[in-house]
Design goal:
The complex is a heterodimer. Chain A is built from twelve helices and nine strands. In chain A, helix 1 crosses helix 5 and helix 2 crosses helix 12. Chain B is of the alpha/beta class. In chain B, helix 2 runs parallel beside helix 3, helix 4 crosses helix 6 and helix 7 packs parallel to helix 9. Chain B starts with 5 loop residues before the first strand and ends with a strand. The chains are: A alpha/beta, B alpha/beta. The interface between A and B is medium-sized, with 30 and 21 residues. The structure holds zinc ion. The site of zinc ion has 5 residues of chain B, from loops.
């Protein structure tokens, strides 16, 4: 076990994490994963700590995953589903956060539709902030659980080829994964309709392709992203049918990848669009492992942020 | 006007209009300004100020300022904006009409000029191009001009309808009006929050491509050429806009242009971790654009440095980045930032005075922009060596939204004289 110490007060962007930090989170998560297999799935580690889930966007999966993680660590959790329209009623986000601060929370887990909101909170209140997805910026816990899942299956992250297919522009999952996997020495490739590949993606750490087959060629990991059917006033692609035909991951696509390539998706899947059903539910799919690992990763983050040591 | 005479001694007197750049003294007496070289005998005056080592230049004119009166006086008023102006070395400012309600009629112009009587700086109202800045009907140029409007602009938004822009230009010919264009193709900028490129990708923010400005710049240039109406392009921020304007000028089209200090001092990287004080429209661009803007200033493609002073309170700025208001204050930092260009030897001191005084006076058709014979006794004194830190506590404007807070500067305006009266003294 490593002796590396986790120095972060907040988890906002994987850009702030060193490869050693990421390794540590994955190791601690592995040790917490065992708790989930016990009959009494609870440890007293965070007893007396207060954690607020502040979600400005509807989310069942991520919110539930953080809530389960906090409860398994015996923390007191509060869920606040806020609406961005409260800003229009005169209360700004910073006002809302300062009101919550009166409850002395140790950690605020925030999801918001605007990129950068976790920084706004971190700059204005004293609690630790965990980014549970901000706009089209980042979703670090999702990328960490994706890396954990790949590492469990492949033994390593370094030297792997990871192909991410779909809406790269609007995907905070893709952004965090590109940063995380490339930090760990993997080679990240992306493809999708060119309208959904943002400018300068190479500078973030991914090689863009026009053809999804080229992106997927010899890949160890093929990850498809959820496609948003409509984006206001922005004509991005003509139809879901054409999207599925040219950018959906199918048996045919997978022929270009390594035979043992992992199939991943951050969920929820539009079966038959981003990915054919046989692939999503097939033997190469690790989509359910991703969900299980999500809880372990979030336990690890809560633990490390509260000052936990490497050998949990 | 002060009846007393004022002798400003031993300054470096820079007046591009009379091609003066010499050490000497300047006498301000009953609104008349006269020059005395070093070997001339100096007259006596009721007040004398020693200015050796300082630059004495015609009063600076900022032709692009947003005062928030009427409507948003908590951000800035005519009086508070004028205080910030004279602190920054500006003796006159042109105020954009996008107030609430907008300056789109004669009475609105008159109201501004009434309030301006209490202000330290001269105020030149700009009227709207379209009624209510709605972009559908031409506003009353003639009546507004009679009331004192010096130019017309829908600034804050573009005139999206090309036919309206063309008709406004044609109609403006009757009044010798100058139209100031905020050139932006809005359909490319939907909810955009910063320049589009690898930084917008990194921050996950909606981008505003440079093409959104360039397409609109070309449209406005083409219409100016077609109609013959004098066009002034506001806040130019991209490399290709500079080359489009350069080409238009070469062809003799009736165009002038301006940039703001932030477009030659900062790149999009200034946004850092979502700093809303670095959010404005057009957005900060890239180093390549900064270099092209400097080149444009140097070769005369860009005629004017104007601040686009846009005060906002923390109610509009301490927000999610994509929801925060566009705009920064600029009146108090323009001189210091422009002096950086002089020190980098991109422009000369005389060129700096052209950009900040002579050219804006010429474009707006107002007095000033020169020291002698009709110079209106508006004078700015600059100490090019004075060092200071621009802190939040130092800000004179009612609003504090500057990306230059806590910057160390060398050089600032130290004395501002409007109509013969000292309105700011930091000697
Ligand atoms: Zn504008």
């Amino acid at each position: 076990m490593t002796t590396h110490r986790f120095q972060h007060k907040h988890v906002i962007s994987l850009r702030d994490f060193s490869p050693e930090d990421i390794d540590l989170v994955l190791q601690v998560a592995e040790s917490f994963k065992e708790i989930s297999t016990r009959s009494i799935k609870k440890v007293p580690t965070l007893r007396g700590k207060t954690i607020i889930n502040l979600f400005f966007e509807p989310s069942t999966r991520t919110k539930l995953s953080f809530e389960i993680a906090a409860k398994r660590m015996s923390a007191d959790t509060f869920n606040i589903s806020a609406s961005t329209s409260s800003a229009k009623k005169g209360e700004s986000l910073v006002d809302t956060a300062r009101n919550l601060e009166a409850m002395n929370p140790d950690i605020i887990i925030i999801r918001h539709s605007s990129s950068g909101v976790p920084y706004l909170l971190a700059n204005n209140i004293k609690s630790s902030i965990i980014n549970a997805g901000d706009g089209t910026h980042e979703h670090p816990s999702q990328a960490l659980l994706d890396m954990m899942t790949v590492k469990e299956n492949k033994g390593t992250l370094a030297g792997l080829k990871v192909a991410i297919i779909g809406d790269i522009t609007h995907s905070r999952v893709a952004h965090s994964n590109i940063i995380g996997f490339s930090k760990m020495g993997a080679d990240v490739h992306v493809a999708g309709p060119s309208t959904l590949i943002p400018p300068g993606i190479e500078k973030i750490g991914a090689t863009p392709h026009l053809s999804i087959n080229n992106a997927v060629k010899d890949a160890d990991v093929v990850m498809a992203l959820r496609i948003q059917k409509e984006r206001q006033e922005d004509p991005l692609f003509p139809s879901l049918r054409e999207y599925a035909t040219f950018f959906g991951v199918s048996r045919k696509t997978l022929q270009f990848a390594k035979p043992d390539a992992l199939v991943m998706h951050p969920g929820p899947i539009n079966r038959g669009i981003e990915m054919t059903a046989d692939i999503a539910d097939g033997s190469q799919s690790v989509i359910l492992e991703q969900v299980t690992n999500g809880v372990a990763i979030r336990m690890a983050l809560l633990y490390l942020i509260m000052g936990g040591e490497g050998g949990a | 006007m002060s009846q007393e005479s004022l002798l400003l001694k031993n300054a470096r007197v820079i007046d591009p209009f009379s091609k003066t750049d010499a050490i000497g003294s300047v006498l301000v007496n009953k609104g008349e300004v006269s020059f005395f070289s070093q070997d001339q005998e100096l007259p006596t005056a009721s007040q004398e100020i020693e200015l050796s080592g300082k630059w004495l230049v015609p009063g600076l004119i900022d032709m692009h300022v947003h005062l928030r009166e009427p409507g948003e006086e908590y951000k800035e008023t005519i009086v508070s904006g004028a205080k910030a102006a004279v602190a920054g070395g500006f003796t006159a400012i042109a105020c954009m009409p996008n107030t609430t309600p907008p300056t789109d009629n004669q009475q609105a112009v008159t109201l501004i000029l009434q309030k301006a009587a209490q202000a330290d700086a001269k105020i030149y109202p700009v009227g709207t191009i379209s009624k209510g800045i709605q972009g559908s009907e031409i506003a009353e140029f003639g009546e507004m001009q009679e009331a004192g409007a010096v130019a017309f602009s829908d600034d804050g938004r573009p005139v999206s309808n090309s036919q309206l822009m063309r008709r406004a230009m044609e109609y403006g010919l009757n009044y010798g009006a100058t139209l100031i264009s905020h050139s932006e193709e809005l359909s490319l900028c939907h909810k955009g929050a910063m320049n589009e490129g690898n930084w917008s990708t990194r921050l996950g923010l909606r981008g505003i491509p440079r093409a959104a400005e360039e397409i609109a710049v070309y449209r406005d240039l083409a219409l100016a050429n077609y109609t013959g109406c004098p066009l002034h392009l506001a806040h130019i921020s991209t490399k290709e806009s500079v080359s489009l304007i350069r080409r238009a000028k070469k062809k003799g089209w009736p165009v002038t242009s301006e940039t703001a200090p932030h477009y030659f001092s900062l790149t999009e990287e200034a946004i850092g971790q979502y700093d809303t004080y670095a959010k404005m429209n057009p957005p900060l661009r890239t180093q390549e654009d900064v270099d092209a803007i400097k080149e444009g200033l140097k070769d005369g493609t860009i005629d004017v440095i104007a601040t686009d002073h846009a005060p906002h309170s923390d109610l509009e700025k301490t927000l999610e980045f994509d929801m925060a208001a566009n705009g920064i204050i600029g009146l108090e930092t323009a001189v210091s930032l422009t002096l950086n260009l002089v020190r980098e030897e991109i422009i000369s001191a005389a060129k700096m005075v052209e950009l900040l005084s002579m050219n804006p006076a010429k474009i707006l058709g107002v007095d000033g922009g020169k020291l002698f014979e009709g110079g209106a006794a508006d004078i700015t004194v600059i100490d090019p060596e004075r060092t200071y830190t621009y802190t939040r506590e130092n800000v004179v404007s009612k609003s504090k939204n500057s990306p230059f807070l806590d910057w160390d500067f060398t050089g600032k305006s130290v004395l501002t004289i409007v109509a013969g009266r000292v309105v700011f003294n930091d000697l």
